[in-house]
Fold Dynein assembly factor with WD repeat domains 1.
Amino acid sequence: PRRRSRILRYCCHHKCFIFVYFLGIMLEYEKSGQLKTKSIDLLDLDPSTDVSALVEEIQKAEPLITASRSDQVKLLIQRLQNKLGQHSNHKFYLFKVIDKIATGSFDKTCKLWSVETGKCYHTFRGHTAEISEPFSFCRKVYTLIGHCAEISSALFNWDCSLILTGSMDKTCKLWDAVNGKCVATLTGHDDEILDSCFDYAGKLIATASADGTARIFSAATRNCVTKLEGHEGEISKISFNPQGNRLLTGSSDKTARIWDAQTGQCLQVLEGHMDEIFSCAFNYKGDIIITGRGEINPINSALLSNWLLEFLS
């Protein structure tokens, strides 16, 4: 699937965009007055790849990449290649403060960064495949083994007694955070699980899937208590409000939806984005929502929308 590639995105208006996704190129063009996209995977790109030869190969297969575009594409791929080859030997200490951020990458590493300067403090190595989400661990305690495909999300419940993982194998798993044993497998989705979360009390679990539905499970019984239906595309993000009575979903159908977490009823559809919604979240009061779509603008740095939810206050 391409929905999590690192994409080098450029369009017919001579503007370049870099978008974090799976390794690949997305072409954006206009046809019959409509904006179209086409994706080319670059999953085999590594620091030793001959970029010039790669661009020539892509040009032969894709007529949209003309000679006038080749230098631009080559430059962007070289920048991406340089990122894949970066190394760091800095020693570090990890503190629970807000001036640092951890990132997980498809280059099989996690990095610790300064929020203020953007400097990379340290690179964590050890995984043998892509990392889709980082933990704030300095030392590996144990390895969780059981999923049959890539893991799309991983997080603790509020008291750190359980770990929840979502996977492309269409399941979520609950793990004992003390011994690393799997205590439950949550099933029911017909396609890959793209996101999952606990509510703030740790009593409910929500899952979002490429099948266009979300489900709510009881953390105690591990049974599905509610199925959320209504989106017309895959759901890439799901989150509870702080009160735990509302759920927010973002979808490739260009909308976000607010749901009653008890009944599964859709309370409101948030429309206005012109592209897929990849991220969305409540603020800490639960009265404002922010949504982000699948494109990064070099001027504004991100295309985001705020929504004031008066009926939730």
